[in-house]
Amino acid sequence: MDRTQYTLAELAERFALALHGDGSRVIDGVGTLAHAGPRQLSFLASGKYAAQLKDTRAGAVILGAQDLPDCPTAALVADDPYLAYAKIARLFEHRPAARPGIHPSAVVAAGARIAEGASIGPFVVVEDGAVVEDGVEIGPHCIVGRDCVVGAQSRLVARVTLVERVTLGKRVLVHPGAVIGSDGFGLAFERDHWVKIPQLGGVRIGDDCEIGANTTIDRGALEDTVLEEDVRLDNQIQIAHNVHVGAHTAMAGCAAVAGSARIGRYCMIGGDAGVLGHLELADRVTITAKSLVTHSIREPGEYSSGTPLQDNRSWRRNAARFKHLDEFARRLAALEKGRDHA
Amino acid sequence: MDRTQYTLAELAERFALALHGDGSRVIDGVGTLAHAGPRQLSFLASGKYAAQLKDTRAGAVILGAQDLPDCPTAALVADDPYLAYAKIARLFEHRPAARPGIHPSAVVAAGARIAEGASIGPFVVVEDGAVVEDGVEIGPHCIVGRDCVVGAQSRLVARVTLVERVTLGKRVLVHPGAVIGSDGFGLAFERDHWVKIPQLGGVRIGDDCEIGANTTIDRGALEDTVLEEDVRLDNQIQIAHNVHVGAHTAMAGCAAVAGSARIGRYCMIGGDAGVLGHLELADRVTITAKSLVTHSIREPGEYSSGTPLQDNRSWRRNAARFKHLDEFARRLAALEKGRDHA
Amino acid sequence: MDRTQYTLAELAERFALALHGDGSRVIDGVGTLAHAGPRQLSFLASGKYAAQLKDTRAGAVILGAQDLPDCPTAALVADDPYLAYAKIARLFEHRPAARPGIHPSAVVAAGARIAEGASIGPFVVVEDGAVVEDGVEIGPHCIVGRDCVVGAQSRLVARVTLVERVTLGKRVLVHPGAVIGSDGFGLAFERDHWVKIPQLGGVRIGDDCEIGANTTIDRGALEDTVLEEDVRLDNQIQIAHNVHVGAHTAMAGCAAVAGSARIGRYCMIGGDAGVLGHLELADRVTITAKSLVTHSIREPGEYSSGTPLQDNRSWRRNAARFKHLDEFARRLAALEKGRDHA
């Protein structure tokens, strides 16, 4: 059974943190500075919340050394309090372990291979040629399509669809509503109508990736759409066919990447940002929210597009002028020329 | 059985509207000014459609007093014709009532509690600790996860997933594909890889909320993501963890709100608009479509960002100049200085 | 059984292409210029990949006459190599044919009509009044709601929801997670709360349309939401109630169209572009990615909004100036006036 409580001293030792205060204090959960109680552990990781420290009723607080003097209760001092919190908080996440075995309602094709230790939930469909490795948990209503592989210890939370030729690495976590391996959007135009391009590739997802709710990842037209390891996708992200995302890149909700774009490693793509097709982004590129990337980026750094928010009346006046920017530039140059010749 | 027809006089009385014309006329449906027939009721609520009034073949029209002189048929005069239409039209929505009871294909955990009057459709999964109250209708393929509560008279249309620790109030309506209670997107960075932050909170949805198709609402990291009562979300909206949305706020399709943002009451968030994390919006703030909110808004009013649509050639010229706006500002100032010193 | 290989001469004849090189060469698949092997056919359709031609190991290449001199292997010369590729590649797409019949787990209402040649997969729900025509393939977890019609030879890949009053034409292809026929987002405001407008219309989808993964199409408020024939929608597109999309129009991922907008024929709507409600777009209008259409467009052509991507520091400086554009315009005019009067 999961343990449900720890002393502060135990936590300090286990996570190699410096303890200040009473190590025998018992902790059975985590909470925010504002609402944690005396048996809960809180954390301070951002200056935004520093003012809440002095009034906290938490049993203890994970914080940086600089905040220790202001802490009214016991403390665990960490170089990176947010990271330390992330690790400790896992102890207090009590999800019942999935029971290995195949739910009687599941429909598993004769040609599928399910490891003994895997758990297959209600109404799951596993099609021919699919492989589900050991320790995998497949929640209700998931579909593991033809020739898909779900790597060891991965978890499809619920209602995830792997369409076909999708390979997930180990410890991949996929949230409800995600669709992986759907047809890429490929069309050729013939005289007066569209002709569909067959989508013959697959999708390869590396170890430790996380795919958000209702995110879609199309399979490749000829070769594979690829996410390297530890890629983290939030909800409602769209990854088109033959995109390649480098390891450890994270994308916030509603970001979209068009076909054959190649994103580097350790990139951060902001919420609702877009990347056009066939572009390349170097490693460690950050795109801010709602920006559109229209050309390749060769240098690490932060990039943006868009205009600032204003009250609608001011915005309307300024936006109307945007339509004349080129003309303004010419008029400005003419004035300068006039002055220089005066 | 549902009644399927009403006389105009009955409708006038029931909805407290002034009747002009033959009260014995029978109405059995509603329609647009352009296409309603003599047994249908239409309405005029926007000047955009005023020109269609004179040619309408509708049996009667709901309209404001100012349009009465131009009405060629019977009329029901309302202060707010659109609102009156909304209420009357419900009479003509003939959805068969869901049959109470649990469909034999549903998988209901022993530890779940289903009210007798609730209706549970085919292939529904109800997990341990879940509560489904009276009069609830849960359509096919829905999942009511661990410790979720579906309040009385709520309806999950079909294929809705409540992941865990989600509480819906009364009369909540959730459309297909919505995912509520998925993991928030929380990550800490450790040296060279991501560490997931456990998402230990839940989601609380107030009475009379409506959640659109394929909308996603993540559960909180520590405390809950909250929608107060009568919040109306269109399709494909993304609500991140720990967002708080005030009562009666409406969001149009594809809007997205990042983590811990706090939206006021009676706000209107336009289609595909975005709100960055940790911001606050006052009550009665309107954000126009596709705008990005990058700072807190303290005053009610309408706010916007973006640039106007132009033909691509003009747009390209102007957009290129945008990259030099700061330089233009300096050159403009230099010219002014020159003039003032001349 | 599907044939799995063809000689080049057969392909040349079947698709009316000029053959250069050894017609007896056997082809059993397709591949990219960079990775195709000697039994695979590749294609060159874009200058972007021209440099890869000289090193290709493909058995043959489909290309335009102008590239023939640089081709190191056999070739099939086409006026439109991409289109020729699209057609030939279909030969090598080996999807097992769906077996006609109804999977024993499916729940089909007594009042539904399923053609004998249709294939109904596991956990499918077909409700009363629904019609599934001949040759239709309905994959696992789909819902065909009340009074929906699925036209002959259409395919719902998996987990597609047709909510109610949805009519699909022939050969319509719908990808996983799509929701068609959900309630339009219609609200009237009463004093201090919202009143829902019943959504009494349906959705009509023409022949040969394709609907992407997790795309949503609401049904009309009174009349129908309409997609004419051969409309192609990518993933995560949102089509609001009463939108009308003309034949052969294509929309890229995450595009959104608000209520009652009318899009012409042969339009191209870019990724994440938006169209406001009640607007009209003429035929052959192209909207570039992430642009917002705020007024009707009467002329064919390409239209855009937005600002170019820059490094964040430059962008911040320029964006800040955007808020003063109107003032700049006035100051510029004042300077010009001063000069003209000098």
TrEMBL record, chains A, B, C:
<feature type="domain" description="UDP-3-O-[3-hydroxymyristoyl] glucosamine N-acyltransferase non-repeat region">
    <location>
        <begin position="25"/>
        <end position="91"/>
    </location>
</feature>
<dbReference type="GO" id="GO:0009245">
    <property type="term" value="P:lipid A biosynthetic process"/>
</dbReference>
<comment type="pathway">
    <text>Bacterial outer membrane biogenesis; LPS lipid A biosynthesis.</text>
</comment>
<keyword id="KW-0443">Lipid metabolism</keyword>
<dbReference type="InterPro" id="IPR007691">
    <property type="entry name" value="LpxD"/>
</dbReference>
<keyword id="KW-0808">Transferase</keyword>
<feature type="active site" description="Proton acceptor">
    <location>
        <position position="241"/>
    </location>
</feature>
<comment type="subunit">
    <text>Homotrimer.</text>
</comment>
<dbReference type="GO" id="GO:0016020">
    <property type="term" value="C:membrane"/>
</dbReference>
<keyword id="KW-0677">Repeat</keyword>
<keyword id="KW-0441">Lipid A biosynthesis</keyword>
<comment type="function">
    <text>Catalyzes the N-acylation of UDP-3-O-acylglucosamine using 3-hydroxyacyl-ACP as the acyl donor. Is involved in the biosynthesis of lipid A, a phosphorylated glycolipid that anchors the lipopolysaccharide to the outer membrane of the cell.</text>
</comment>
<protein>
    <recommendedName>
        <fullName>UDP-3-O-acylglucosamine N-acyltransferase</fullName>
        <ecNumber>2.3.1.191</ecNumber>
    </recommendedName>
</protein>
<comment type="similarity">
    <text>Belongs to the transferase hexapeptide repeat family. LpxD subfamily.</text>
</comment>
<dbReference type="Pfam" id="PF04613">
    <property type="entry name" value="LpxD"/>
</dbReference>
<dbReference type="InterPro" id="IPR018357">
    <property type="entry name" value="Hexapep_transf_CS"/>
</dbReference>
<keyword id="KW-0444">Lipid biosynthesis</keyword>
<dbReference type="GO" id="GO:0016410">
    <property type="term" value="F:N-acyltransferase activity"/>
</dbReference>
<dbReference type="GO" id="GO:0103118">
    <property type="term" value="F:UDP-3-O-[(3R)-3-hydroxyacyl]-glucosamine N-acyltransferase activity"/>
</dbReference>
<dbReference type="InterPro" id="IPR020573">
    <property type="entry name" value="UDP_GlcNAc_AcTrfase_non-rep"/>
</dbReference>
<dbReference type="InterPro" id="IPR011004">
    <property type="entry name" value="Trimer_LpxA-like_sf"/>
</dbReference>
<keyword id="KW-0012">Acyltransferase</keyword>
